[in-house]
Write a structure and sequence with these properties.
The complex is a heterodimer of chains A (357) and B (303). Chain A has 357 residues and is of the alpha+beta class. Chain A is built from 8 helices and 20 strands. In chain A, a hairpin with a 4-residue loop joins strand 12 and strand 13. Chain B has a two-stranded antiparallel ribbon. A two-stranded antiparallel sheet of chain B has the order 3-4. Chain B is globular. The chains are: A alpha+beta (357), B mainly alpha (303).
Chain lengths: 357, 303
């Protein structure tokens, strides 16, 4: 794997009283031609990583390489890295075409080449008809495309995207997600995408790094992260999850036997084997609603909310925990249970994730 | 018989004129009036003890640019006046450039401070501005005169043996005017810069622009209104400056302002003073038009 970006023990502390540690020694390897997403709540350090890679900030310690060469002594204008800013940061005194050509002009490319590349880029983001507009005269979605074209025009080796879709409305955001993925595949440029929107991360990324409090909690493919969250934070942050307390009663190789709160036992795969009390994570769509005596965890159906594609069942388990499960709807299914009825929750041991604490 | 709507319409029209009276009065008595008087005085004959005789004459206008040799009556350019015009324009232009050179980085510095600190920095720029002009000028004089602070320190350090003659030169006038007018440059540039989105600077760096090119291609075009306003605010009063060249230039480095004062005072030639005043106004107008044209054209569209 060719590493586009490689960071070791990357640390950033902002001076102040007390000093703020935005990034506490992070290791990341991002492959060439990868759509890599940094995902986390605001203030988790994801934007700091982006600014360090772009060169707007200097790390307190650690190393940062691009294709095997250290970036640390290079100012931003000498890094073959471009950024799509959250605010777009388009130059208001230039037209759309001038904005897109700015990077090439600064690189000293000949006029003819600038012209053809700008035309090509405007075509790529479908903005050709607005080439001579001022940036204040185009809509937010169009500004977003211009910002993207401007960053792609100099053909950077790495493209950084700082929550570029957050200002767009829902429909436009959905379209742009697909478009970004298409652009990444077409151009072959390594994309590093920052977002706090887990759905955005799951749909676009090749790999995701989930961050919190200046540290990386897990790096993996979207599927890996969704299906096998490494810890409680990741399980909670990505998608909806039910957390259940359980006790380990036996460990056999890669599998553990667990006793649930109801006293019933299941066996689950355990990547992070440990003893004593653990937390189980079960996704709402992986559990089933059953009659009171046939399931694993008995309780009372407290609410059923119809969502069109699926119905969300809220169950108050007998041990006091709340459990949510989802069932897909189709015209031929009908709700078997009524509110207030005693029911039970059931799931195969295979879908339960044993979390490290 | 008048219909009612007609009366109302008339009353509104009359009220409109009533409301305009303060503005019209100011325009008439403060702007056009004095200018008109000056214009009229410039084509009259000087009185023996100042004032004017009501007799038409173009002598004053003739004397602004030309002079007749006392001995052989030959006609020639009025070298004294022309050199004073030239000095005024030159020193004002240099003052503007120097104010720009110091004022721009100052405004940039203040605009990039945290929001809480900015007001304090601006206060430091404005405080001297509240001080009496004469006092500020004498403070500079105190610094650079032969027995002043700068020369005393330099001699004490053994760097020079004789005091450097700084006072009563064009340099001292320039120094005084830059000091006096600097806030007029900083304020409008700061006002532009405060509205400037500094994230654009990062965008510039990101797109391979060096520091200088970010300044040239991104910052300058966007704060240009402030730079133009500041330059005009410094250049125009510099051209008519009176106190600073008088104090810092002694008697021998006159600028237009001093020349005009001379005509109304010791010279007892009010028409010449009036003609010179209008010449000054004309120079300001021409300079402004030229400047705005040049500054406005600088940003030519590419490609």
């Amino acid at each position: 794997m060719t590493k586009a970006i490689s960071a070791r023990a990357l640390r950033k502390v902002y001076p102040g009283t007390p000093p703020v540690e935005a990034l506490g020694g992070v290791d990341i390897d991002i492959a060439d031609n990868e759509f890599f997403t940094l995902l986390g709540p605001s203030g988790c350090g994801k934007t700091t990583i982006l600014r360090l890679i772009a060169g707007f900030e200097h790390p307190t310690s650690g190393s940062l390489d691009m294709f095997g060469q250290s970036l640390l002594d290079l100012p931003p204008y000498k890094r073959q890295i471009n950024t799509v800013f959250q605010s777009y940061a388009l130059f208001p005194h230039m037209s759309v075409a001038e904005n897109i050509g700015f990077g090439l002009e600064m690189l000293g490319k000949p006029k003819s080449e600038i012209k053809s590349t700008v035309a090509e880029m405007m075509d790529l983001v479908q903005m050709s008809h607005l080439a001579d507009r001022q940036t204040s005269q185009i809509s937010g979605g169009q500004q977003q495309r211009v910002a993207l074209a401007r960053a792609l025009a100099p053909k950077p080796r790495v493209l950084l995207l700082d929550e570029p879709l957050s200002a767009l409305d829902f429909k436009l955001r959905k379209n742009m997600q697909l478009e970004l993925k298409r652009l990444q595949t077409e151009t072959g440029i390594t994309f590093i995408f920052v977002t706090h929107d887990q759905e955005e991360a799951l749909t676009m990324s090749d790999r995701i790094a989930v961050m919190s409090d200046g540290a990386i909690r897990q790096i993996g493919s979207p599927r890996d992260i969704y299906d096998h969250p490494a810890d409680r934070f990741v399980a909670d942050f990505i998608g909806d999850t039910n957390f259940l307390p359980a006790d380990v009663i036996a460990t056999e190789g890669e599998r553990v036997s667990l006793r649930l709160g109801s006293g019933k036992t299941i066996t689950a795969p355990a990547r992070h084997a440990g003893g004593g009390r653990v937390t189980l994570a079960v996704r709402p769509e992986h559990a089933r609603l059953e009659a009171e005596d046939s399931g694993l965890l008995p309780g009372v159906l407290s609410d059923a909310v119809y969502f069109g594609t699926d119905t969300h069942f809220h169950i108050a388990l007998d041990d006091g925990t709340a459990f949510v499960l989802r069932q897909q709807n189709s015209p031929d299914t009908e709700t078997r249970f009524a509110k207030g009825e005693r029911v039970s929750v059931s799931f195969p041991g295979e879908v339960a994730q044993v979390l490290r604490d | 018989m008048e219909s009612i709507p007609d009366t109302i319409a008339r009353r509104t029209a009359r009220n409109r004129w009533l409301l305009l009276i303060p503005a019209l009065a100011i325009l008439l008595f403060a702007a056009s009036g004095p200018l008109l008087i000056t214009l009229v005085y410039s084509v009259l004959t000087p009185g023996d003890y100042g004032g004017v005789e009501w007799q038409f004459s173009l002598d004053a206008w003739f004397n602004v640019f030309m002079q007749r040799d006392i001995f052989d009556d030959t006609l020639g350019w009025s070298d004294a006046h022309l050199s004073i015009f030239w000095r005024s324009v030159k020193l004002s232009a240099l003052t503007t450039l120097a104010c720009l050179a110091f004022g721009f980085p100052t405004a940039y510095f203040i605009a990039t401070r945290p929001k809480k600190q900015r007001d304090l920095w601006m206060l430091l720029i404005i405080i001297p501005f509240w001080t009496n002009l004469l006092i500020r000028t004498f403070a500079i004089l105190e610094l650079i005169r032969n027995e002043g602070t700068v020369n005393t320190v330099l001699i004490a350090l053994g760097l020079i043996d004789e005091p450097i003659q700084m006072l009563f030169t064009e340099f001292s006038i320039l120094l005084g005017m830059v000091y006096v007018y600097l806030p007029l440059m900083v304020l409008p540039i700061y006002a532009s810069m405060e509205r400037f989105d500094f994230r654009l600077v990062e965008a510039g760096y990101d797109l391979y622009a060096t520091r200088f090119r970010v300044l040239r291609k991104v910052i300058l075009p966007l704060v240009k209104p402030g730079v133009i306003a500041g330059s005009i605010l410094v250049f125009v009063p510099s051209l008519g400056a009176y106190v600073t060249p008088r104090v810092m230039g002694g008697g021998n480095q006159l600028m237009i302002g001093n020349l005009i004062e001379l005509q109304f005072g010791q010279g007892r030639n009010w028409p010449l003073g009036a003609a010179l005043s209008i010449t000054l106004l004309a120079i300001v107008m021409v300079a402004l038009l030229a400047y705005v044209r040049v500054a406005g054209n600088e940003e030519t569209p590419h490609g």
